[in-house]
Specification:
Blueprint (H helix, E strand, L loop, with lengths): L2 E8 L3 H12 L4 E5 L12 H6 L1 H19 L15 H25 L3 E4 L1 E8 L2 E7 L3 E11 L3 E3 L12 E2 L1 H4 L8 E5 L3 H12 L3 E5 L11 H14 L2 E3 L3 E7 L4 E6 L5 E6 L1 E4 L3 E3 L32 E3 L10 H15 L13 E3 L4 E6 L2 H7 L3 E7 L4 H6 L5 E7 L5 E8 L2 H13 L4 H5 L9 H11 L7
Parallel strand pairs: 1-2, 1-6, 2-3, 6-17, 8-15, 9-10, 9-15, 10-11
Antiparallel strand pairs: 4-5, 5-6, 7-16, 12-13, 13-14, 18-19, 19-22, 20-21, 21-22
Helix pairs in contact: 1-8, 3-4, 3-6
Bound molecules: flavin-adenine dinucleotide and 1,4-dihydronicotinamide adenine dinucleotide.
1,4-dihydronicotinamide adenine dinucleotide (NAI) binds next to α6 and β18.
């Protein structure tokens, strides 16, 4: 007889391992299956996020930012740093260490919570009276059964038709995070989150970076005023972003990659680059899962179909994270994982899609929660807006980074906060206050009346809230 569990989680990324831990906390017998291998072939749970996503990208963003500061900003502090060099191999090794610490941390957490970890690929076999059978193909093969299954198999980079990733010249996020040397000329297709973060890393290290974006607008999902401010900063840094292009033939040759495209003016351009990163979004991953075996419904984009509670069409089978609809963010996957474990336990787990924060870890950082000004206009909502520039914030001046602003959007009648948008230093941390405020249905005045430490960047948040009522104190 196969090993029997209350809950079997397929996928050990942020959606999966967090669901497994929460289910174990709730008293269930839990298994978590993950197939990711480290360089030595051992288990490396944490998924895209830990291995080739959030964590390694932030490690490289940090290293490259230090390098950029040493080269361009130390002097204004009176520090002379001549002949600053970047040892790319060492930077990558540090990144790998950070990744491994996270992999090991997750293995420890699973063990601590008595989750049985299986290293291998999980695929559905059949549904029986005891539950759903899942074959685990690792070093050995075995079948385990779960009364409940949580699928958290994540996503993969979307390729451009006719241009497969070789991870040598044509790179997905995977190859983009382990380039052995700084390319002289780097091209990217897609100026979304990965394009901007990865473009920033390699530009700071000295690459001549061109990002080709198909849409005519820059960061269309971001509040227009914030996106405009960010674009200004990226232009100043020398990050070349071409909007409204149509990418044509791509030739992956011995010496590099040639991208033929038509620019917004309709001119045909030939762009030669040493490396090309394709960052045009991601596709849900059900490779090897054998969903047909249990009749699992998949939509036309390859995502597993779920309802608002993450239930699939098969009773007892749930799905969370990048493999289902909604934003492809680690914290969204985690929240869904927790909510599903709690629902299995008969509780009322809940994910509030209106208060999921977004952060782009460029310099300046971009962060937001709630609706943008253009969305409020489109929805016909009467709103008030208040902005406060970091230029007028004492801490930002002391830091030497006064780019950007904080912007509040509040209901014109009730003053309830509808959206908070930020571009500037460390806004990845500042956005948390706005998320809390929105969860508690705070008004802009609530934030304006709260004492914020001085001098701190968070004072810009308070001042932007005051600006909604046209009564900033420092601007
Ligand atoms: P994943 O993290 O993809 O995990 C899925 C896991 O399931 C993998 O380990 C995979 O090996 C395993 N698996 C798949 N199929 C099977 C199977 N059949 N059997 C066993 N195991 C299987 N999000 C943020 O919120 N913040 C960021 O800063 C951020 N930065 C990013 C940077 C990059 C470059 C990329 C690519 C993504 C980034 N993301 C970020 C997005 C984030 O990584 C994803 O939203 C998140 O990882 C999704 O979690 P998940 O658990 O759904 O899937
Ligand atoms: P994205 O959806 O953020 O951006 C893709 C961009 O490519 C879009 O601007 C789109 O218009 C453009 N595009 C699509 N097809 C194109 C084409 N044929 N030619 C030119 N441009 C084209 O996707 P990205 O950057 O690949 O990232 C995937 C996801 O990973 C993100 O949506 C996000 O969910 C997650 N992520 C999150 C991060 C964070 O939270 N900081 C960091 C990196 C990734």
């Amino acid at each position: 007889m196969s090993k029997q569990f209350d809950v079997v989680v397929i996928g050990g990324g942020p959606g999966g391992y967090i669901a497994a831990i929460r289910a174990a906390q709730l008293g269930f017998q839990v298994a978590c299956i993950d197939e990711w291998k480290n360089a030595a072939g051992g288990p490396a749970p944490g998924g895209t996020c830990t291995n080739v996503g959030c964590i390694p990208s932030k490690a490289l963003l940090q290293s490259s930012e230090h390098f950029d500061h040493a080269n361009h900003h130390f002097a204004e502090h009176g520090i002379s740093a001549k002949d600053v060099k970047m040892d790319v191999a060492k930077m990558l090794a540090r990144k790998d260490t950070v990744v491994k610490q996270n992999n090991d941390g997750i293995l420890y957490l699973l063990k601590k919570n008595k989750v049985t970890f299986f290293h291998g690929r999980g695929s559905f076999v059949k549904t029986t009276e005891a539950g759903h059978e899942v074959n685990v193909a690792g070093k050995a093969e075995e079948v385990i059964t779960g009364k409940h299954i949580i699928i958290a198999t994540g996503s993969n980079a979307r390729a451009l038709p006719g241009t497969p990733f070789d991870e040598v010249n044509v790179l997905s996020n995977d190859g983009a995070l382990r380039l052995g040397a700084v390319p002289k000329k780097l091209a990217l297709i897609g100026s979304g989150v990965i394009g901007l973060e990865m473009g920033s890393v390699w530009r700071r290290l000295g690459a001549d970076v061109t990002i080709l974006e198909g849409l005519p607008t820059f960061l269309g999902a971001v509040d227009e005023q914030i996106a405009k401010e960010a674009k200004k900063a990226f232009d100043k840094q020398g990050l070349k972003i071409e909007l409204g292009v149509k990418v044509g033939e791509i030739v992956n040759g011995k010496k590099g990659v040639t991208v033929n495209y038509t620019n917004a003016k309709g001119e045909a351009i030939v762009l030669d680059a040493d490396k090309l990163i394709i960052s045009i979004g991601r596709v849900a991953n059900t490779i090897g899962l054998n969903p047909e075996a249990i009749g699992l419904q998949i939509d036309e984009r390859g995502a597993i179909v779920v309802d608002g509670d993450c239930k699939t069409n098969v009773p007892g089978v749930w799905a969370v994270g990048d493999v289902v609809r909604g934003p492809m963010l680690a914290h969204k996957a985690e929240e869904e994982g927790v909510a599903v474990a709690e629902r299995i336990a008969g509780q009322h787990g809940h994910v509030n899609f209106n208060t999921i924060p977004w952060v782009i870890y460029t310099s300046p950082e971009i962060a937001w929660v709630g609706r943008t000004e253009q969305q409020l206009k489109a929805d016909g909502v009467a709103y008030k807006a208040g902005t406060f520039p970091f230029l007028a914030n004492g801490r930002a001046r002391a830091l030497g980074d006064t780019t950007g602003m904080v912007k509040f959007l509040a209901d014109a009648t009730t003053d309830e906060i509808l959206g908070v948008h930020m571009v500037g230093p460390q806004v990845s941390e500042l956005i948390a206050e706005a998320v809390v405020a929105m969860e508690f249905k705070a008004s802009a005045e609530d934030i304006a009346r709260i004492c914020h430490a001085h001098p701190s960047l968070s004072e810009a948040t308070k001042e932007a809230a005051l600006a909604v009522d046209k009564r900033t104190l420092n601007f």
